[in-house]
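Table 4 source record.
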Amino acid sequence: MLFLFVWSCQNDVSTTHNSTQEQQATPVSTQSSNVGVKPSAPTNFVGEITLAAEQKTVKAGESFCMELKVANFQGILSTQYTLSWDPGVLEFEAIQSFKLPYMDQQDFGLPLTVNGKLTCVWIDDSLKGVSLPDGSSMYEICFVANPAAGGKTSPVEFVEKPTPFESVNLREKLLEIKPINGSVSVQ
């Protein structure tokens, strides 16, 4: 779980500041009972959240934004996923209008947008959990429709590569992500 991983990393960082004497005095075991054991994929979801992209029709060459909305978003500590589209039809322009607390540009991986992928990893830094009414927007993603893409449609999909689906609630339980994919038709 992302939240637990972050907490674990923070604890690991705080323990790395031991003095050299303490590090030398601490015995290190070279045996592990988990060697060769692969963790299994989590299947113990306690509920689900819905992430939804809009359906749009735009003109070739037009700049536009689409909202990414949620449902069942109650007491959420973190969520992550990848958004995907056809870069031959849509050119990424920006992300804006953040509605989740602590969400900003740093929660997104922008380098893959030229390949039609936007990664997102958001964490409620207050650790109090965030709730949004059904149909609320998390943020907007903005594109320019390729001037040569008239008559084409690009899906706008929530996918698990390179950033897999994960959502954690206030009780630190995994929630399944139910994606509702959108699309953009270019006239």
